[in-house]
Amino acid sequence: MGSTGKKVKKKSFSRRLSRTVTLFVAVIFVAEMIMVELTSSKIIAEEAARSTQHMLHGTIGELELPLGEVEIATRAVSSFVMTSPNMATTEMIMKRTVEMDTLICGGSVIYPSSDGAKATMSYEDSSGTVHSFPMAGGWSDDSWVMQCLAYVDQYRAPFWAPPYMAEGKRNQRVTAYCYPIYREVEGDSVLTAVVTAELPVDWMERKCESLRPYPHALTTVVCGTSIIGLRDSILMAQIQEAVAEDKSLQELQEDMKKGVDSMRRIGSGSQVGYVVYGPLHNGWTVSIVCQYKEVLQRSSQIHFNLLIIGIIVLLLLYVVCRIIIHRMSSPITQLSDAALRMAKGDLNTELPEIKSGDEMMHLHDSFVYMQNSITEYIEELKTTTAANERMESELGVARNIQMGMLRTDFPANVAAMLVPAKEVGGDLYDFVQKDNYLYFTIGDVSGKGVPASLMMAITRAGLRFVAGMNQPMDKLLERVNVSVTDTNANNMFVTLFMGRINMDTRHMEFCNAGHNPIIVVPPAGDAYFLKAKPNLAIGLFDDFAYEAESLDLEAGTRLILYTDGVNEAERADQSLFGNERLLAWAGSDKVRRAASEQEVVDGLYAEVLQYTEGNQQNDDITIMSIKV
Amino acid sequence: MEVTIKNEGEKTYVTLNGRLDTTNADQFQTDIQPLMTMPKPDIDIDCTDMSYTSSQGLRIFLSLQKSVLARGGKMVMLHMNPQVKEVFDITGFSNIIAIR
Asked: Which of A52, A294, A553, A565 could lock onto A621 through a cystine, CB 3.0 to 4.6 A?
C-alpha cells in the first residue's frame, strides 16, 4: 500500500497541472524574449546611432569654440603684424598672446624672404613660463617654418595645419592656425608674413577621449591624413589597411573630405558597428565609431537579467501553482480515500466537508448521495435477502409437503418418479390399490411453480376422493373436473390420464383428459402410443362430458406414463427429446428386459438427462411405469 | 414471440410469429390485452409462423376465447402447424376453440 501511495503521489494531479502551466508560460516567455531581442536590438541600435549623432554634434560644438577663439586671436595678432613691420614688436605681441590666451600654447610670425625666412617664436613650457626668441635662417626642409610656408603656398588663405611636433624644447604635438598676410605690390599680392598660433593636440585628444558614448567607442578628429584621438599606431595601421581594402570605408573617406554630416554602417562579421561623422568649419571631420556588440551589450545585460527574473518567476509559478492546485484538489484525494474506505465495506465512513459551491461540492454531494443510496440499497437488499431466504425455506417446506403427497410405497408392479423444475411443481402421479383393482393417474398442471403446485394439490385431493369408487371411469373424471373447476378462477387446467386395471382380467378402463398419450409395451410386438378420445383437460368447463374407453391387456404388458417434461426436454439448441425417441426407447430391449419398474423409470430419466446434456430443466418431469 | 394486431372494419387480424413459452407468456398476455376489451370482437388468429406453444400459452388462448364469447364475439385460429395442432388436440382444446 505504501509503495502504491508513493506512486500515486509521483503522478499527482497538482504536479502535472503545475508542470503544464509552467511549461506553457515558459514557452510564451521564451517566445516573448526572442521577439523582444529581435525588435529591441534594432531599436536600440537605431537609438544608439541617433544619440551618438547628438553627441557628435555636441563634440563638434565644443571643438569649434576654441578653434574659433584661436582664429580670432590669430587674426588680432595678424592685424598688428600688418601695421607693424618691426619684428621686436611682433615678437612681443605674440609673446603676450601666448601668455594671455589659455588655449594657445605657442605661436610664431614668419617673414619669408628670398634667402630663406626669418621668424619669431614664442611658446609656453610645461611650467607655464613663456619663452620668446627670434630665429633666422638655416631651416631644414622638414622644419615647421618650411612646411608652413609650403602650405601657405598651396592654400593661399588662412588654414589649420595638420598636427606636427612643436619646435623648440617641447615634446608636444600641436596643430596651428596659420594666417598669411599679403601686400599689394604693383598689382600682385606678395606674402609678407604668416602668423601662426599653436593649439596643443593633447587638448583635443583629451576632448575626444572624454566624449565617448561607450568605453570602447572611438572619437577622432580627422585632419587630412592625420587622425587626432587615435594614439595607437597599430590600430592606425589596421585602419589604413582596412580603408585600402573596403570600398565602403573609401566612400566614407570621400564623405569626410566633402564635409558630409552623416552616419554609416561599417565592418563585417562579428566586427560590425557604425560611424557617425560631421565636419568642423576648418575642413576637419569629427567621427565617432561604435561597435554594435558594445551598444547591444547593455541590452544583452538587460535581457540576461530578464531571463534570470523569468526563471525565478517560473519557479515561483510552479511552486505556487502546485500549492494552490494541491489545496484545491485535496477534496478529490479525500473523496477518493473515502471511496476506497467505502469500497472496503465502511459504508458510514465520514466524507470531507466541502462547501465551495463548485464542481468539488457537486462531486461531494454526489458522493453523499451515492453513500446514502448504497446504504439504503444494502438495507433493502438485506430485507429482500431475508425475505427470499424465508420464502426459500417456506418453499422447501412446501416441497416437502408436496413430495409427501406422492406415494413412494410402490408395489412390485408400479414405480414412479417426479422431478420438479422449481422447488415445487405442477405434475402429479398417484395410484391406489383396492380389491383387485389398480387405480392410477398421471397429470400436469398448466404452468409451474407455486400456482401449479396448489392446483396440483387440489387435483390430487379430488383424485384421492374418487379413487376406489366403484363407478364408471368417465363419471369419476367428471367429479374430479367439477371439484377442480369450482376452485379455479384463473383458467388454469390440468391434463390428466386416469386408468383402472382389473389385475385379474387385465381389463383397463381409462380416460385421457388432454394428456400425452401413454405408451403401451406389449410382451410381443411394437410399443405404441395409446390413442384415446380427445377429452378436454380438467378445470376448464364443469359441464364437459368425458368419454372413457377400455382396453384388454396381455399379461406382461408394460404401461409407461409420462408428462411433457419428458418428450419436450430441451437441449441447449432448443431441439426436443421428441416422441419418436421416446417410443424407440420404450420399444428397446433395455425396457423389455428391465427387471423392475423402478429400473424402467430410472432408465428413462437417465435417457432424458443424457439427451439434454446438462441443459437446465425447464419443466417438471414425471415418469410412471406399470406392469400387468 | 411477435404479435401483430390489425383492425380492418369489423374484423381483427392477429398474426403470431415465434415460440410461445414460459419466458414470454406474460408479455404475450400484455400484447393481446387490446383484444380483451373490444366490443363484439371478430378475431382471426393466423398461427402460420407460431412454432410452439406451452400449456401457459393454451391457458391464454382459452382466456381470450372465454372473454370473446362473453362479449358475444367470435374467434378463429388459422393455419396451425402440425406440432401446435397436436398440442391443441391432445389437451382437448380443439374441442372448445375454433380451429381452421
From this structure: A565
Tens of pLDDT, residue by residue over B6-60, are 988 889 999 999 988 878 888 998 999 888 888 889 999 999 999 988 888 888 8
Domains (range + CATH), chain A: 84-203 (3.30.450.20), 213-291 (3.30.450), 406-627 (3.60.40.10)
Sort out which chain A residues have CB atoms less than 8 A from B59's CB and list them.
446-447, 491-493
Q: Do A536 and B22 touch (CB under 8 A)?
A: no
| A238/A235 Cα distance (integer angstroms) | 5
Q: What residue has cell string 411453480?
A: A449
Q: How far is CA A473 from each of CA A288, A470, A481, rounded to the nearest angstrom? A: 142, 9, 12
CATH of the domain at B59: 3.30.750.24
A598-622 pLDDT, tens digit each: 999 999 999 999 999 989 988 899 9
Q: What is the mean predicted confidence (pLDDT) over A70-86?
A: 85
Tally the domains of chain B: 1
- Cβ of A540 within 8 Å of Cβ of B95? The answer is no
pLDDT bin (cut points 50, 70, 90) of residue A5 is very low
- pTM > 0.80: yes or no: no
Q: Would you tell me how many other CB atoms lie within 10 Å of the CB of residue A524?
A: 8
Task: Give the residue numbers spanning the domain of B47.
Answer: 2-99
- Which residue carries 406382461 as its cell? A556
Residues A456, A425 contacting (CB under 8 angstroms) = yes
The CA distances from residue A431 to A102, A245, A408, A443, A450, in Å, are 159, 137, 10, 12, 23
Task: Tell which residue, A165, A93, A152, A86, has the closest CA to residue A122.
Answer: A93
